[in-house]
Amino acid sequence: MMFADPQKDFIGWDYLTGNMDVSISTQRYMHLYKLVGLNGGELKVSVRDPSTDKWTKWADFFQSSRFKGGFSTEQLRLAYDIHREILKNEIVIESDYDSYEQNYDATRPIGAILEHKGFTPHYYYSGNKSLHIHVYLAFDSLLQADLLVQDQIMQKFRYKKTFMNKFMEWLRERVISCWGTELKEFDKELVRSSHLIRSEMSKNKLGYKTFLGYSYKDVSCIPYISNEENRIYPKIGEIKLSRPHSSQELLEEFLSSLDIKKRISKVKRREASLKHWIDPGKKESLRGCVKFILSDEFGERGDGFKRAMFILCNELRKVLGEGEALIVVKDWNERMGFHVSNEDIEYRMKLKSYTLSCDYIHKFLESLGHKDIDKKCNHKI
Question: The whole model's pTM is what?
Answer without folding.
Answer: 0.71
